[in-house]
Every structure is written in structure tokens, then in C-alpha cells.
Design goal:
By secondary structure, the chain is mainly α. Helices cover about 60% and strands about 0% of the residues. Strand 1 (about 125-130) and strand 2 form a beta hairpin. It is globular and about 70 Å long.
């Protein structure tokens, strides 16, 4: 049953990624988690603060008869390379990437803020370990929405399949399962959202879903097409697109958690800004990983990741196109190792590191409105772990 904890994507909203210049988009729940023992310790300590391991937040959904049936169907994909199966395995076996990070942050910021002065007595009785029951429900909803989009984005482009990927009928079946199971989880999230009985929270979270859809459209609009170079995105547009697809859900969920506790607009804004800047810093960390050491040479990376976008801005469009041409192999493939070295030699990587730290510092600034506590310290430690780069 836990196999399908990952199953999701929204109503076929985005075109499958192209693999002309880069390998298929990697599927992970919070891309590029800092793979260090210190990071794991930060998350483990944070989970103790909020009361339980967040990896069990979606347990009620996982135990449903509907999802159990879906999990049985996914077993038919064994032996294929369909992303849905790989994502399911990641949920079951991958303890490194800390699969429920968004929900964990929502719970931590809920506890850090504590009860508001305007909260009535009925709310106080609903609090466990310093967190309201409705805030815990919101954390689950946030994870369900993210999980839905995760699997939806893993749908494969049938036209690009190779014989080694698996039988065509199995891959088509996998796509159907990704769409249907993703829609199922998204529907469950929306039902839970309505049960919170707070119109502003519904507006915030549903707005985040719309932002994610828009962000994915933007991402796909500048994915490279056959016999074409990547678009000249620009770091400003890159930041806007990444916020929509990676940051809006966490930022608005943090704000919604403050609304559920009846905190004033200033506190809500601070929570939103923390979620926004932490998400951007996290994504920058993820994008930097293929460029951080010698062992990463030749590692797959997106031609639209932050270091590459910044590299283009520094050297200019024409020089970038020439570098891509020099790294081009037969069949429109790219020698990633060669291109990677050219990017490392430029200023894009350093600029991306500075940008990662900038957003980390902005996230920390927005925690000052909360009183000192273990929960606030945990939120700070998460930022420190993300921004700890060479």
C-alpha cells in the first residue's frame, strides 16, 4: 500500500519533458535534499519537536481501499522504466531525501508561532504538542497536493520511448495510472481542505495549486525542443517560475497555518516569506549539486537550472550557444561533462551560491517575529543546512 504514497499529477496539465539535451527530469519530493548526515539529523530532531515522524502523515490515505487497489495495479509496471514505479520505490526505500519536508515545515512554523492572542478557548483545547489539529491536517493536505503533482509530472512521452523502456501497452497503462491516482490524491486533498472550514485558507491553498500549474506550464514552455537551443530565460524570470512551481505551495501553506491559529496579517506575511525564501534557497541548492565537486563531473543536469541561467547572463547569449555547439554530439545529444566544465569555469556557479545564501538569510530574517523556541531553532537549522555550500 505504501507503494502508492507517491502517486499523483493534475489532470494531464503539463507536457512530458523532452530528453533532447538532458535526461528526463528527475522525480523527487523535495528535489536535491542536502545529502549529508547533518541534514538527516536536522530533520530527525525537527520531527521530534512536532510530535511524530512526518513520514506517517498520509497514513490514513494510504490505508484506504481505493489507494490499496491502485497500489496493486502499479505492480504491473514491474520490469518497465515508467517513472511512476521509480517514484513509488523512492517512497518505500529512500530515507535520505526526507519525503515529507513541506509538511514538516508547516508543523514547525505552526509550533513556533504558537497560539495567537485572539484565539478563543475552544481552539486551545484542540492543541497537541503546541500545534492545532487543523494545522496538522493542513500539513497533510500540503503533502498530498505535492505528491499529486509529483507523479503527474512523471508521465512519460510515448513518442520518445525506446524498446528498453518496456512494452508500449505497459507504459500507456502507467500513464493512465499516474493521472488517475494523482487525481485521486488531489481530490482527497481538496476534500480535506474544505473540511478546514476556513475560506481564506481554501483561497490560499487553491491559489497555490493554480500557481503550481502555471509554473509547470512555464517550465515546459522553455524546455528545449528538437534541433533547438534552450531559451534565454534570464534569472528574474527563472526566479518567478521557480517560485510558482516550487515555492508557492509551501509559502501559502505556512501563511494558511497562521490563519488557522488566527494570527494577525503581519505574522501571516512573515510565515509566507519564510516559506518562499526557504523554498528558493532549497531549489538553488538542488541546482548547484552537479557543479559542487569533481566527482559530479558528467552528472546529469538541466540546461535551465540556476547556475546555467546565470552563466548565460554573464557570458551572453551568443557565447552560450557556441559553447553548446562545441559540446554537441551526434543525434543532438550533448556532452554534459564538457559543458559542465565550461559552466564551472564561469561565474554562474558562484553567483548561484550567493543567491542561495541570500534567500537563506531572507528566510531567517522572517523568523524574528516568533519567540525563541526549539521549533524556531529547527526552522533556522533547516536554512543553515540548505545554505551550507563550499
Amino acid at each position: 500500500m505504501s507503494l502508492m504514497k507517491c502517486a499523483m499529477w493534475p489532470l494531464g496539465i503539463c507536457r512530458p519533458s523532452s530528453s533532447v539535451f538532458c535526461t528526463r527530469r528527475a522525480i523527487s519530493l523535495f528535489p536535491g535534499s542536502p545529502a549529508t548526515s547533518q541534514w538527516n539529523k536536522v530533520v530527525s530532531d525537527a520531527e521530534k519537536i512536532v510530535g511524530y515522524p512526518t513520514s506517517f502523515m498520509s497514513l490514513r490515505c494510504l490505508l484506504s481501499d481505493e489507494l490499496s487497489n491502485i497500489a496493486m495495479q502499479v505492480r504491473k509496471l514491474v520490469g518497465t522504466k515508467h517513472p511512476l514505479l521509480n517514484t513509488a520505490r523512492a517512497f518505500v526505500y529512500d530515507s535520505r531525501n526526507n519525503l515529507q519536508m513541506r509538511g514538516l515545515v508547516v508543523l514547525l512554523i505552526s509550533k513556533a508561532a504558537g497560539p495567537s492572542k485572539s484565539a478563543d478557548d475552544t481552539l486551545q483545547h484542540d492543541m497537541v504538542s503546541g500545534i492545532y489539529a487543523r494545522q496538522r491536517n493542513l500539513a497533510e493536505i500540503t503533502e498530498l497536493i505535492h505528491t499529486a503533482f509529483l507523479v503527474h509530472r512523471g508521465i512519460v512521452n510515448i513518442e520518445e520511448l525506446k524498446s528498453c523502456d518496456g512494452p508500449l501497452k505497459d507504459m500507456q497503462f502507467g500513464n493512465k495510472m499516474a493521472i488517475l491516482s494523482g487525481d485521486f490524491l488531489l481530490a482527497n486533498a481538496c476534500t480535506g481542505l474544505a473540511q478546514l472550514q476556513n475560506t481564506k485558507v481554501v483561497e490560499l491553498v487553491s491559489g497555490a495549486i493554480g500557481d503550481m500549474v502555471q509554473g509547470i506550464y512555464y517550465e515546459n514552455s522553455y524546455l528545449p525542443e528538437k534541433n533547438a537551443f534552450t531559451d534565454d530565460i534570464g534569472i528574474t524570470n527563472w526566479m518567478e517560475h521557480i517560485f510558482l512551481s516550487h515555492g508557492a505551495l509551501l509559502a501559502k501553506s505556512c501563511q494558511a497555518a497562521m490563519e488557522l491559529a488566527k494570527h494577525d496579517p503581519e505574522v501571516q506575511s512573515m510565515a509566507f516569506q519564510y516559506g518562499k525564501h526557504m523554498s528558493l534557497s532549497y531549489k538553488l541548492n538542488s541546482d548547484l549539486q552537479p557543479f559542487m565537486n569533481e566527482k559530479s563531473s558528467g552528472t546529469s543536469f538541466s540546461l535551465n537550472c540556476a547556475p546555467v541561467v546565470l552563466h548565460q547572463e554573464f557570458i551572453g547569449r551568443e557565447a552560450w550557444m557556441e559553447q553548446v555547439k562545441q559540446a554537441q554530439l551526434k543525434g543532438n545529444l550533448i556532452d554534459l561533462a564538457k559543458l559542465q566544465e565550461a559552466i564551472k569555469a564561469g561565474k554562474g556557479v558562484t553567483a548561484a551560491i550567493d543567491l542561495c545564501r541570500y534567500h537563506g538569510n531572507k528566510a531567517l530574517e522572517n523568523l524574528h517575529c516568533f519567540p525563541p523556541s526549539k521549533a524556531r531553532s529547527a526552522l533556522e537549522d533547516i536554512v543553515y543546512a540548505v545554505t551550507r555550500l563550499p
